[in-house]
Write a structure and sequence with these properties.
Distance between the termini: 40 Å
Helix content: 40-55%
Radius of gyration: 15 Å
Structural class: alpha/beta
Bound molecules: D-ribose
Largest sheet: 5 strands, parallel
Shape: globular
Length: 153
């Protein structure tokens, strides 16, 4: 069986937090691909959010973790890519429920909003929870229908 592959990406404001997340992934025995940014030189979060999101959308990576100053911009960028459901979280319960109920495939967090230990706790909650399906599957399918421009009422 192929190892679970996680896409990670960040902008200049979250380089340190990415290192923390990579050490968590190492600890959890998960493989990852780092889509940059690789330095703390000012850069544009949509570029990196989209690179990681495309890797998740194509199936190259199963899940993704995105980091910027707030987690908002890079998460918004990811959600522009078809097939991506990215949740921006500052607490572990939202991250867990994002997986269990919304079948989120990406998590974004803000390095200027939360500290590294909380970020790791949130990432762990996200990566260990599983989609429950059932009544939630219909709702997630409705999200896909919206993405295809269909009416859902
Ligand atoms: C960069 O200064 C900052 O705007 C970015 O990291 C992020 O917070 C955007 O949502």
């Amino acid at each position: 069986e192929e190892p679970v592959m996680i896409a990670i990406a960040n902008d200049h404001s979250a380089l340190e937090m990415k290192k923390e997340i990579m050490s968590l992934l190492d600890e959890m025995g998960l493989e990852y691909k780092d889509f940059g940014a690789y330095s703390s030189e000012s850069c544009n979060y949509p570029v990196f959010g989209a690179r990681a999101a495309r890797a998740v959308a194509s199936g190259e990576c199963e899940f993704g973790i995105l980091l910027c100053g707030t987690g908002l911009g890079i998460g918004l960028a990811a959600n522009k890519i078809k097939g991506i459901r990215c949740v921006t979280c500052s607490d572990p319960l939202s991250a867990e429920l994002g997986r269990r109920h919304n079948n989120a495939n990406m998590l974004s967090m803000g390095a200027r909003i939360i500290g590294p230990e909380l970020a790791k706790c949130i990432a762990r909650a996200f990566l260990t929870a599983q989609f429950e399906g059932g009544r939630h599957a219909l709702r997630v399918e409705m999200l896909s229908a919206l993405e295809r421009g269909e009416e859902i009422e």
